[in-house]
Write a structure and sequence with these properties.
The protein is 38% helix and 40% strand. Strand 1, helix 1 and strand 2 form a beta-alpha-beta unit.
Length: 65
């Protein structure tokens, strides 16, 4: 954070197969919008790290970190 803005880093597991670029773009926009709405901060960037690609059933058992 710096004054009224923030940069965020998020790690995710994604289902396989997936369009990684499109999905990360959607996640980035969603997180920036929600965090800005909830905190009033300007979001200067959201970095998405894909930790794993997992088969559909495995992802349903997911985790929140």
């Amino acid at each position: 954070m710096h004054e009224d803005s923030a940069r965020l880093k998020v790690s995710v597991d994604l289902p396989y197969p997936v369009d990684i670029a499109r999905t990360c773009g959607e996640i980035r926009r969603y997180i920036a919008h929600r965090v800005s709405d909830l905190t009033g901060l300007r979001i200067d960037g959201v970095t998405i790290s894909v930790q794993r690609l997992v088969l559909g059933e495995s992802l349903r058992q997911g985790r929140a970190a």
